[in-house]
Every structure is written in C-alpha cells, then in structure tokens.
Amino acid sequence: MDTETLAQAMKDCGLKFLGFRRGTGIPTYVAGMVMSCSTDEGRRDRTTALDDPARVPKANAAWFELATEFGLFSVDRQFLLSISVPRPDAVDDTDVEGVWGLVELMDDWDIMGAGCAAGITGSPYGCPAFVMSALDGSVFVQGTVWQDSIGTAVLLNPHRVQSLRDIARLNVGKPYRSAAEDEDTLAWLAG
Questions:
Q1: Alpha-carbon dihedral of residues 108, 110, 114, 120, nearest 10 degrees?
Q2: The total number of structural domains that make up the chain
Q3: 13-41 b/e with 16+ CB inside 10 Å = b?
Q4: pLDDT tens per residue across span 146-173
Q5: Residues 6+ positions from 148 with CB-CB distance below 8 Å
Q6: Which of 29, 63, 118, 166 has its CA 20 to 30 A from that of 106?
Q7: For the chain, which ranges sit under pLDDT 70?
Q8: What domain range is 92 assigned to?
C-alpha cells in the first residue's frame, strides 16, 4: 500500500497519517505482546461482547477511555500505530514487519468500525487487531478479538515488564528480525 492510499484509508477512520517513524527505539513486535502480559504485570483490559449489537461504539468508547486514562496521546493527540510493510529483502508480500506510523486522532474517528473495515486497525469491521504506542513508549495499547468479545488492552511502563524484556533479549540477532528491529530492541532494552 502506497503512502497516499494509506493516508486516505486512515483519514476515512479518523486518523491523520503524519508519516513513517523508524528508529524510535520502540520495537513494534514487543508492543504487540501486551496480550501476553498478565494483570499482575500491569495489563488492563476493556471488552465488549461479540454478540452485543452496540459492540463497535462501546469498544470505541472503551479504547478512548483507556488511551486517555493511561496516556497514549500526546498533547496534539498523536501516537504511534504499527503498520505492516514489506521487509527490505522480502521475496513476497507475506514477508512483512511492523513499522510505526505517526498518526493524529481527528475529532471524528472510528477505530473499531471504519478502521477495521479499511484494514488499518484490524479486519473485518468490528474485529480489532492493532498495536499502538505513546510517542515515548511509556504506554502500549493492543486491540484484539477474543473468543466471545472484542476489546483493548493497555500496558503502562512496558519497559519495566520483565517478561517483555526477556522476549526482547531473545529476539536480538534472530534471522527473522531486521537490522532496524534489532536497533530498536537494543535501544529499548537500554532505556
């Protein structure tokens, strides 16, 4: 997906695409492991039943409440959203990595509905599958579909979570990690 198409798809769900951000020192794959953390490690969830006819507006409200309460947004309502892009040496379109896109939340947004329908924050409509981070990496947010519900999980101070640090250490230098991912991982571990 080219950046113009990506920007339009994001606009359609209420996100302003401000460009890709590499070298953030925040590994996207680590941010995508919020669901593997326990409540003892600080994970907080909000869910809505799959069979609830108002699941999308309820899940949108829950996402916004968590994101606001735990500090996902900058003062300009900006945050990082993981976007799958082809790896530099990809041989086909299934060989992808997560790269942060800097986005700004506009006044009229729909993360769980239009965002999922556009393939930006999940797929299909009402089925979230997203990874987000505060600009400084102090908060990770993940959207997912469980067996009987959809929802959002948030993790404050993820760099202090030992299980994530252990996974990050194990991933450094692996052939399935790019040089950019290794750099971000080492910076994250040093922070």
A1: 110
A2: 1
A3: bbbebeeeeeebbbbbbbbbbbeebeeeb
A4: 999 999 999 999 999 999 999 999 999 9
A5: 49, 50, 51
A6: 29
A7: 1
A8: 3-190
